[in-house]
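lol ok so funny story. i was supposed to be doing the assay writeup but got distracted and ended up predicting the structure for this chain instead. priorities right. anyway since i did it might as well share w the group, maybe its usefull for someone
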Amino acid sequence: VQLQAFGGGLVQAGGFLRLSCAASGRPFSSYAMGWFRQAPGKEREFVAAISWSGGSTYYADSVKGRFTISRDNAKNTVYLQMNSLKPEDTAVYYCAAVLGATIITIATMSQPLNGMDYWGKGTQVTVSS
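and the output, tada:
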């Protein structure tokens, strides 16, 4: 699976962005998907995950109620709607795919770079105060 994330940019605090992750290659609908982010000097952290069907989602506490993950398997795309953005949301955002893992497993991976099967190149999100 090849993944490409896009939609990042510069936004003021309180604003919104919608990230997209387009997949190609192996059947996209077989994979659970996750969004992760990495701020300068920090480790990559979990943001949100969605099951292969889209029926289950899971969020990091820091984004719960503000971010929404969704997917359209017909379009081979997963989305991250980010509302009420805060300066601390500033990071490079990555999408990733994994086969055979639950969304809880994705959320609790100690080393997501090893645990997820495929990664896309990140997209920069910058939130100004």
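The mean pLDDT is 96. The chain has two helices and eleven strands.
back to the writeup now i swear
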